[in-house]
Fold this protein.
Amino acid sequence: MSIISFLKSLGPGLITGASDDDPSSIATFAQVGAKLELGLLWTIVFFYPSILVVQEICARIGLLTGRGLAKIIEKKYSRKVVLPLVSLLLIANTINIGDDIGAMAASTSLLIPQVPLYIFSIIFTIFILFAIVLIPYKKYVKILKYLTLSLLTYLVTAIIVGDNWYQILIATIVPHIEFTTDFATMFVAVLGTTISPYLFFWQASEEVEEEVEQHKIKDIDKGKPAVSKKEIKSMIKDTAIGIGFAHFITWAIIITTAGSLHTMALQIFKLQNRQQNLWSHSLNHFQIQARFQSQFLPWE
């Protein structure tokens, strides 16, 4: 099976999984590698079953009901429950999108430093809005599928930068825990970035979008689709591959930054400590000198 045929067989699971490696997530994983080196690499393997189960549940809900996750929650409970949840999701998504656009603008600014950062942010925002509104769903999904291949550059970089692969293998399968503030902060950051609420809603809605495209239902929340066992198995495979691909790229990002930025981060940390120690010693010296002058030298 060729890469093109393989991509055609995949759908919402791959796109949702790849979307988890957005610019803000990449920045988080880069900090993990730079600060803790390979200390949290094992979480990529251990978190995989959790996110896979949750995403498959969301995909199954959308596939079998023909409704989005918010509509199902409203039907099961009430608007009093769904409105606060959707409001929180809206706020979180807005902040996340702002971070992503800002990261894209900052990256482009490194290539063209003459152009102000906010100009790139405006350009990216307009481009994305026009793409979502003007490009038909079927074509847009194809574009997103092929764009996922760009994430493989992180794997190539990890192969180049990665040094001790035996150590990397051990760090991947053997849990490592430190009772420090940095470790706890990064652990929570990885967990929060890996299991993101917007992915739940996205996966369910995209499964329904696929059914609308295949004319199984007229529109989202309008009609109940007929789903075969083969389609359910295809959804399970799609979700497993998509989430697995996202975690594989995350693994590569941590290895890349651990091999390229961790040593530099330690040097900066040591330099900051030396500066703080130098300042403390200087301050102590001046305090001792001031006490000596006040006690033993006559005032004029």
